Every structure is written in C-alpha cells, then in structure tokens.
Amino acid sequence: MMFKAVGDGRPYPDHGFVSDRDWADVPPRQIRLDQLVTTKSTLDLRHLLASDSTFFGDLFAHVVSWRGDLYLEDGLHRALRTALQQRLVLHARVLELDDDGRPAPPPG
C-alpha cells in the first residue's frame, strides 16, 4: 500500500497555516509514504507530470500531525512522484497539532 489511507477532506481543525510563509518556520523531516493519510482523493495528472510543478511555492510537502495520524495536506503530487521513483520516503514540513487543533510549540 502506498499510503496508510486515502481520505477526502481534512478531519483536523483549521490550524491557520495558509501560505508558504506560514509553513516556512516548520522544519522539514523525512516521512514514510505508508504513514500518510491523504486529504485529497483526486489529482490532476497535468500537475503531476509538469516539469515545473515544484518551481513555484514550497519545495516540501505539508503534513499535519494530529491525534496520532499524519495527514498529507499539500504535496500529493510530490508524494506520487516519490512513489513512482520507487522511493519510500518524502521530505515534508510536519505541523504538530494538539488534541484541540492548536499548533504545538516547537520542541526545545
């Protein structure tokens, strides 16, 4: 199985991170594809196959960690490219949310 599950929507509360600038302070880390739950069930193949699909915007996928699950919020095309290249790990910015949906303070 490529992903842990395929979802359709965000089950977690709104966290307020909407722009790449909001996500910029979240450090990237490696995430296994089989740990991710997608928040989109469809993908535009033109976007997946475009050579400049990551040219604009963040180079890293955006993942939300909430209540023990990792939700792929943005970067489905990156995750699929990773899988098509037979890699198991994706570099992503992981936003940790507490049970109430508030961003958890960074460690340290």
Per DSSP, the total helix count is 3
Shape: globular
| CATH 2nd-level architecture of the domain at 5-9 and 23-62 and 69-96 | Alpha-Beta Complex
Tell me roughly what share of residues is in helical segments: 10-25%
- The whole-angstrom Rg is 13 Å
How are the elements arranged and paired?
Blueprint: E1 5-6, H1 20-23, E2 28-32, E3 36-38, H2 45-49, E4 61-66, E5 69-74, H3 76-84, E6 89-96
Parallel strand pairs: 1-3, 3-5, 4-6
Antiparallel strand pairs: 2-6, 4-5
Structure explained in plain terms:
By secondary structure, the protein is α/β, with parallel strands linked by helices. It has a domain at about 5-10 and about 25-60 and about 70-95: Conserved hypothetical protein from pyrococcus furiosus pfu- 392566-001, ParB domain, CATH 3.90.1530. It is built from three helices and six strands. The protein has a six-stranded mixed β-sheet with strand order 1-3-5-4-6-2. It is globular and about 35 Å long. The mean pLDDT is about 85.
Features:
single chain, 108 residues, alpha/beta, Conserved hypothetical protein from pyrococcus furiosus pfu- 392566-001, ParB domain, six-stranded mixed beta sheet, VapB-like_prob, Type II toxin-antitoxin system VapB family antitoxin
Structure, briefly:
With 108 residues, this protein is α/β, with parallel strands linked by helices.
